[in-house]
Each structure stands twice: as C-alpha cells, then as structure tokens.
Design goal:
CATH class of the largest domain in chain B: Alpha Beta
Order of helices and strands of chain A: HHHHHHH
Number of helices of chain B: 15
Largest sheet of chain A: none
Strand content of chain B: 15-25%
CATH superfamily of the largest domain in chain B: Zn peptidases
Helix content of chain B: 25-40%
CATH topology of the largest domain in chain B: Aminopeptidase
Structural class of chain B: alpha/beta
Oligomer: heterodimer
Largest interface: A-B, 36 and 29 residues
Shape of chain A: globular
Number of strands of chain A: 0
Strand content of chain A: under 5%
Distance between the termini of chain B: 93 Å
Shape of chain B: globular
Distance between the termini of chain A: 51 Å
Number of strands of chain B: 20
Radius of gyration of chain A: 19 Å
CATH architecture of the largest domain in chain B: 3-Layer(aba) Sandwich
Chain lengths: 244, 594
Amino acid sequence: MGLVAGFGYFLIALGPALTIFGSSVAPKPFLILTVLASALVWLASLNIAAIVWRAFLPGPSWVFLLILTTSVALQEAFRLLYWHLYLKIEKYLNVLATKLSKPQCNYLDRLEIALASGVGHGLAHAVFFGLSIIAPAFGPATYYTSSCKQMPLFLVSALSSLAFFLLHTFSMVIAFNAYTYDNISQKLFVPIMHLGAALLTLVNLLPNGCTAGVPLVFLCTALTMAYGGKIVWHNLVPVLNTPC
Amino acid sequence: MAAIARAWGLLLLLLLLPWLAHGSSIKSVPELESRMYASLAGFPCVRWLNLTGELGCANPGHGAVSAPILRMGDALDSPATVLVPAESFEEFVDRFGDDKNVVGVLVENGSQAPGFGASDDARFPQAEFAPYENQSWVWNPFGSGMMHRRLNFPVFFLSSPENIELARRLASQNVEKGSKRPANVVEFNDVMQTTKTGTPTTESCLGELSCLPLGGYSVMSTFPPVNVSHPTVKPVVLAMASVDSATFFRDVAPGADSPMSGVIALLAAVDALSHVPDFDSFLKRLVFLVFTGEARGYLGSRQFLAQLKKGAFADYGLTSIHQILEVGSVGQASEATFFVHKQATAAAVDTQQIIDALYLSASSTDSTVKLANEDNPGIPPSSLMTFVHNDPTVAGVVIEEFDTAFTNKYYNSVDDNSSNVNLPSLVVAASLVARSLVLLASDNNLRFDSPIFESIQVNMSLVEEMVNCFFGTSPGMRCSLVESLMTASHDVANHYVGVFQADPSVSPNSMPEVIDDTTRFVWNFLADRTALPREDLHEKCTLVCKNPDEVCVGATQSQLGQCRVSSTSSCILAGKMISFHFSQLSNRSGCHTG
C-alpha cells in the first residue's frame, strides 16, 4: 500500500481544497495572501487551545466535551476578531484604491475574500488534525481501531478533514454575510454548526460509531454548504455591484 | 430558532457519549505507529556458499518479502508466512519446501522442550574430508542434514516466549478472519543474498567480492614458552581441540558437548599442568592448539598445516609434529569411559605410546579408556582428519565419549547447551588429558607413582565456571573468570566461526571486535597458564610488550595487563580455501603474539 495509500488519504482530505484553491483562489494573488493570513490566524487559535489543554491530558473521557466546547468557543471568538481585522484592512484597501483610481471593493470581492479566509481556516484544520495522523499511512501497514472495524483510522481521519475543510470554508462565507447584514440567525448558524460538527465527532468513540459519526459530520457540512449557497444565490444578483 | 432548539437537544445527547465509549485511546502519532508494527526478533538461517553451490536460506530476490502469517496446518492457497513448531520443521520442509506459496517460515520452540530434537548436520558430518573410503558410515545417527539443504525462503527461529505468543496470536487472528482484510503480515527485511547476482559458488562470489569469507583466529601456545630468538628444537606433542560449532541457525550454535567440551577439558588440563615444576627439563615440548572453523570445512587445521609446511612456525621451534592428542566430545561420557580412536595407518610405536599413556592415566584417575571398535572405518569427524590426509602415518589419536557413533543427540544443534554436558565427565576427561600429556612430554621417564604425577589435580570449580561462562546467558561471558582476563563484547558466547573482515597483518588484540570472545578468552587463559612465573613485578601493558618473548596478558577495560614470558599467539588459521584468496592470506605472517 505504502505511498499509494498515503497519497490517497491526502487527496481525500485535501483534494477539494486543491481544486478550490486552483480555480477560485490562485488567479487572484490577493486571495492567496488572504488564505495564508487566515491559515496563520486559525493555526494560532488552535495552538492556544492545544497549549492550554495539553496540561489536562491524558484525562478522563468527559474531558473531550470540555475541550471541544471551549475550543469551538475560542475559534468563534477568533472569527469575530478576524472580521473586525478585515474591516480595518478593507478601509485601507479602499483608501489605496481611491489613490490609484481603481474601483472600490464591492460585495463580490467581499465574498471572494470570505471564501479565501474560509479556505485558510479549513487548511489550518486539515493540517493540524489530519496530516499528522495520515503520515504513518505512507508505510506498508494500516490500522483499524477496536471501535471501528469498518474503516481504517486513516480513512476516518481523511474524511473528517475533508468534511471540516468544506464546513469551515463555507462557514466563513455565511459569517461574512451575517456580519455585513447583521442577520441574527445567520450569525448563530455558524457557531452552532461548528459546535455540532465538533461534538458529532465524538460518535466515533462508540463501538462501530464511525459508520454513523462520519456521515453525520458530512451532514453538517452539507447543511452549511447548502445554506451558504442559498445566501449567495439570493444576494448575488441584487447586491453584486453595491459597494461593501 | 427552531433549528437552534433542535441543535441544543442534540448537544444534550452528545454529552452522554464519552461515557459510552470503550477502548484504549492512542495518545500520540508515535504511539499509533508502535501499534501498527511489532518487531519479532529471531535468529536467522543464513545463506552459505561453497565450492559447488548454495546452502541455507535467503529471500528469493534482493528485496524484503512479506506475507500474512498462518500456522502450519492451515490451508496454504495464497502466499503466506508459516509458523512451524520446531519438531515438525523437517516434515514441513519436505512437504512444502518447494511450494511457491511459502514466503517465509518462523520456527517456534513448539510444545516440547527442547526445540529441534535433532542434529542439523549430516549423518556423516563433513564426510568429504574423511581420509578413508567408507563415507557412508553413520557417525551421527540423529542427523537430519537440514543445514546442508538449500531453501529459497527466509527462516527465523523465535526463541523468546513473548515473540512466540505474539506470532501465534497473529496467526490465529488471520485464520479467524479468513481472507478478509486487514491481515497480520510478517515482513522479512533481512535480505540474505550475495550482493551481485550470478555468483552462486565460493569462487565466483569471492572473486566478485559479493560475499565474505568465513574465517577467524585459532590459538596456539607452547608449553613451556620458547625463546623466540633461539628456539630449542624438541619433538612436539600437539594437544588440540576445536571451538566452533555450526547449526541451521547461524547465531544459535552453543556447541556445548561438540566441540566445546574438548576445549574445556584441554584448558582445565593446561591449568593443572601449569603447576608441574620443571617442565623445561622434559624431553618433548607440548603445543596446545585451539582451532576455529573446523565445523565449516576444517578451516583452522588445514591452514595450520599449510603454514606449518611453509615454516611459518620455525620461531616457535615447531617444524614437525611427533605426536597428536585431540580432545573431542568428552562432556557426556557414560560411567567415565572414554574411547581412543586412531587411524589404522598411524605409526605403530609412537601411537601406542600415546595409548599407553592414556591407559596409565585412566588407571590412576578412576576412569576407563578403551580402544575404539575395530569395525570403525577410521577416526570420527575431527581435526585429526586433516593431519592424517597430510601424512597417513602421523601418530595421532582422538579421545571421544563414544565408540562407533555419536552418543550426542544434539551434535551441531541449537540444543547442544549446558544441559547436554555434565561436570564429572569433563573433570575426568581433563585429568586424563593432563596426566597423559605429562607422560608423553617426559617420554615415559616419569613413573606413574611419582609425586609429580599424583600432584596433577584438575580444578573442579574452574571447570564449572567455564561451563557457566561459555554456555550461560547471564552473566555469561561477563563472569568473573573471564572478566579477570579480558572484557567480553557480548554476554552470550556464540560459537559460530564468523566472517573474516580484518586486515590479516593487524594484531587481533588491538581490535577486540574482530576476534570473538571465546577465542580471546582462550588466548588469555593459555597465555596466563603457560607463562613462566617471574619473581619481580610484571611490567604493565595494554597491547604489546617490548620484549619479543613476552605477551600482554589480562588487559581488560578496568585493569592493565601484565607482560609475561609466554609463547601464545593467535593465528589466522581460517579462510575459505580458494586459490585467489589463499595467496592473499598466506603472504602475510600467520601468527600474532597478542
């Protein structure tokens, strides 16, 4: 298996990431920068959560609940921070654009930047949670946990990374729209979906839980993508050229 | 909002989940990797090459092979690693040795102890070296000949109970699952091949430098020591034994009864003789020889003779041999009875002197010596065969514990360990050897009731210590007897001859890793016991001494050695006999003092 398996899991986890990056992000250099900046911000948030929680591990299994809840809360706080940071940057970008007689940023730009930020977030999650676990898959052996005889650990990990990547990417789009139009239900949707997906991963701990856990997380992802798609579709034509 | 309410409900349910989870958790990626792989340490069967072809085991190609593990008896319809109990190994090889589905074999100790229960060698070991025509005489009735077979898959011997348990568990898991994944797979990553293809014989592989020659150091010591600058010439009585064993699994060759019991008896005899005063006044000189490489083609004895004929030992006053006494397997003699084997062509008078000395010694040590059965075709497999080949009239005998065939059930077997020898047999053999040698050296001028003769006492605790050191696992070669003379590299002594990788001109004591522990110990022991006692304080040393008559004895990691007058040397007396390499090796000096 070896290399084939390793690359397979890698592509499962990050294949769509590469596609989205290649098609939507790469043509615009500013978006590439956004992806990098966003990834760094989110990696920082994950690191802080990890550093704090490392002190309490290994521990009893109910600790997982606390870890997940507090980490999701921390990340959502970072999301708000990110939004305010973005507003500041946008202001400076508009000033610059005026000076250079270029058009100001519009709603489409904001959407694209939101997507790129989401990609950054998703990449950070995939790298942090997925890649290190997938690394041993490049060797000749595989591994099945006692609670999941149906799929190798690496496949579960790769699928989870994929689900969360897509979740984060489109959550950011929804979040930017929510903050722009101050829409309460949209603003609450993102943290709840994030927390829900995170807690649903605990289903994998049950015997044979992975057969339910992985599809359930994908369900959250699908809901997020659908909701995000609906928002963009409804808002796209009317507000396309409105200033940000 | 309704969606949010439902989401909270879900949260409450999820709160219960961690308590429902079972199973141990993995804390880190390295821990994950350690659960994916387990290493099964075992002793390999390796690939040997001789003049005619290949023996032993190897991976078929140059890469590692791997296959799911099954037990012997499970259906072999796809490539598999087979776990075979030792007692069924021969049967397995006979039935499935050519089966393409056998990727590798793991041999486990099985339900009975000991393991193989058989000797790995042929029924006439090394028959091609016999100096007589009857090569179908069965010296080794327990021999399976396994070590002379050529297998095209790797075989490993699992001896530790944990490894055996693990292997059995993995195999039964595979069988329970049937052909469903995931399977437990064994990977054999010890590739045993010549480094170039198309070199299946010794000549081709040594010529292409794609293999290593077997070789080692034999030890020679004269008693009393000679003055190297003016050696006096006296008739030489050779007392010899061999130190190496060979089994199917290269690294498990304890060789307790065959041949190490001979070495132990000889060393104990030397120790007893070292207390005899005025040995210098005796008419003959004793030369002690401990050969290596004998189990693999009599490499030591053949090289010794070749170098003797070239005059390599003239410095030691050794140009020809008068009489030979070889100490063979003497560790499990029944009722203290030993048998003297001689070749019919041996010179009558000189040989009879040896036999008479043995009879005399037997009567004084409460043991029995008998001449071997006349129906035997000649001498049993022994280093003496080399000397008889060279000169059929050589006056030589071999003392063994058996008459017409080996009594040792585990000749060249992994089970020839310390439980296969007993102290009384060894002690009596040592007494026999010591007293016979004194009689021979004095050329029968010593009466058997003289006080000197009676004073020859074998140190029983020395014999016991040697058995524990050579065949024990802890402390093994780090026992106090060995530690007083040298520092061993390994705890457990393995009596495989080894490959020769050193520069022949370099003194072996300067590179302890080149020369194996047992040989180094024999060298130090012989040097110590045969050395002249000195009145003044001995000069300290680490490797060499200034005086050419002296050698540095007993240098260990924690203490310096002493310079003693002794003619003990380690000689490169081994090396696969190929003309190409023979000329290389023989151009350099054969022996090193130190």
